[in-house]
Ammonia channel protein AmtB
Amino acid sequence: MEGTTTAFFAGQVTLTQLVQNLVYASGTVGALTVVAGLLMIDAGTTRSANLYNSTIEKMVGFFIGFATYFIIGFGFWAGQYYIMSGGTMMDSLKDWWFFGALSNAHAQKVDPAVWPGLNTFQIFIFFLACFAGIVNVLLHFAVSERMKASAFYVTCVVATVVSSVLSWAVWGSVGPLTNAGFHDFFGIGFVYIFPTGIAMVLVPQLGKRPGMFAPHPKVASYKAPSIGLAATGLITIFAGLPMVILSCLFFFDPETYAVSVTMADTSVGIAFNNYGISWAGGAITGAIISYRTKNYIYLLLGPLAGYVSGAPGFDVYLPWQMFLVSLGAPIAAWVVYNFTSKREIDEHKLFPLFIGAGFYALIMVGLVKSGTPRGGYFGITEGAYAFQHGQISVLMQLAGFALCLGAGILTGLVLSVVLKVTTGLRVPEDAQAEGLDKLIWGLDNESKS
């Protein structure tokens, strides 16, 4: 896309533009806060003998995803707006890849007729790159301590590219599925459900960690070193996500008019309150489950399940609706948790939260808010991309869930075949039991007493 000149376009760098830039920049702060919270949860629940290695692999995986997204990922997501305007996906990739004209242009030198609000879109590269990294951090929760680092890092590159393509289809307002009626305000499809699909393939092949379900000669039982630190990580995530909510809104004239990324009617206050009450509802039901079962885990999973249940619909729910929906989310997660635990499937985070609560979340939006107008783009009054021409429906929610989970499963199947014959996939059981911190880094963190 041509448009960079020696002229100065003051409309690209007004105070109004700066305010919007700061709003979206705050989303990157929120996303990084979420990463910090996830690392705290990992530090509190990973066996001490593997703790440093697990943390480092998550950090490296995050930055592999982050860098890969800068190189190629954003062009896929932005492509929906090019196609809406009569361009092509290749046009978007050429403009927004690492060396692209728009990803490297100074906003004041680009005619607004070519691309208005350029600073904001450039900040969105950073914002969405954070979530590309979070995809990899979440996947690592499922394969931690068992998957070879080399295999995981290759997976990070592939997962970033595939999730970027998926974001074009299922997150925004004019991608093929979102324009047709699939509604996912917070992007749980391509950020949460997609890596869960990959994990569904890899976890059975990686097997159980020593001591997780039965004593091992070197590991009598799998012990989490600090549940308190994990709880602190939970609150850190809670504190970071409100800033992300702001970055899932579009603002149009008059300047305080907000619509969601899906172009549904909403407001900043309603979206924030829905977010907060979803955590409260999940925490209440999670606490009831924990006290009834004497299992501490649902004091942690409950609030997260409540959040996941609301994430697709923070923009369209009313707070009382959100609270009622979130009360049921930990039950959906509990059903999956019990199913996998009884079958000694060693995955206690992604499956309950994103198959259980995630499926529940997408379906409940379809049931409770069926017929809600959204999709298209503000200002377009007719045609395939007319503002709010599409409606939320259960059928489209099912289609979105199936696409995101299916894309993850297919990615996992292809990767598992390739990795087995190249880098290898699984860390040997004896090495897992001995502890990767000691074997790889010479650290002896676990008390032998």
Summary: The longest strand covers residues 249-252. The beta strands are 249-252, 257-260, 373-374, 390-391. The chain is about 65% helix and 5% strand. The CA atoms of residues 154 and 419 lie 8 Å apart.
